[in-house]
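debug: dumping io for the single-chain case to check the tokenizer round-trip. Nothing else runs in this session.
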Amino acid sequence: MMMGHKVYRTLMFWLVWASFAIAVLLGLYIDTGVWDFVKNDPTKLTWVILGLFFLGILVSFILTMNITKESIEAALAESAAREKGLMGIDTAPEKHATQRFFASLKEIVSNNSPVDLDALLQTEISFYQRLSHGIAVMGNLLITQGLIGTVIGLSITLAGLSTSLEALGQNEALLLEGLRKAMGGMGTAFYATLMGAVFGGLLLRVFALITENGVEDLQDRVMKICLVHCAADRKLTEDKDVRLLNAEVTSLAENAKLLRIAFEDSKQAMLEFREEAKRLADFGDGLEKGDDLAALREAIRMQKHYRVLLRQEIKLVDQVNRAWWPPLRRLFRSARARPLKTPAETSQPSPSGAEASHD
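debug: decoded output
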């Protein structure tokens, strides 16, 4: 149970702080007029602040889920390394940074090469560190945008006050418009600073701190596995070679055992085949001795005769189904090949006929 709490600690911290952030958002919505101003913000700067804030929340949640998955893989690797050492860790899919780290470590150890654990681990989890740093940068950007909103709001306020001063005592409508513009500028300065400080300086920075601590905790857990449970595999000594040789011998013994079982199964199958062949031979001898041999031969002869008749019947049916096309084709060919006779040639008797009559 303690291992489960350690694995899901980053996710639990994130959910607790997300609940606090939701409470802060509800407080801003209920007790102040922040959302009313956001809807009517002429500069749309508060919309940009909200968009970056929710983007940072999304990135932080995705990073938290990935860190939780990596922690689960590290826990599984620790349990496997405690029993079988480094070579017992399953790194087949290599979907996670932890699996890729142990796969690279296995390859280095197999080649008997020196390894820098800090550099190798830093290479695998650097992507998570960059994402966590990006969330912190988003928080700083929100604070900067709040300061920019302050400057823009003050500029709008000064422009409105200048308009009001110019219209003082001359144009009351222009005076009211200038004052309204000045109040809008003050609202932009105040609310932009408030949202930048709360969303960026408070909420988003804590989210970045949670993910950063999760990445560091993952790094410490993986390093502990390497230093405690994989130390014997990393040493370039004869003991490691003997251990690897023992593992190979154990694997070879298991393969020999499987091969022996396969040979026994094959022997049993051959015995069964021999029994079946003997039974069939005995059955044939019984037929030759009895009166059923003539009946069996007659049945085989009738089956052959029936097969010949069936083949002839299929050919006849095929010829009947296709009989109309060859005569029709020959008819058209003979019609095209026969020359047409003129009337004179028709009335003139043939030489053979004349000779026949003469004779």
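debug: round-trip ok. Residues 251-322 form one domain.
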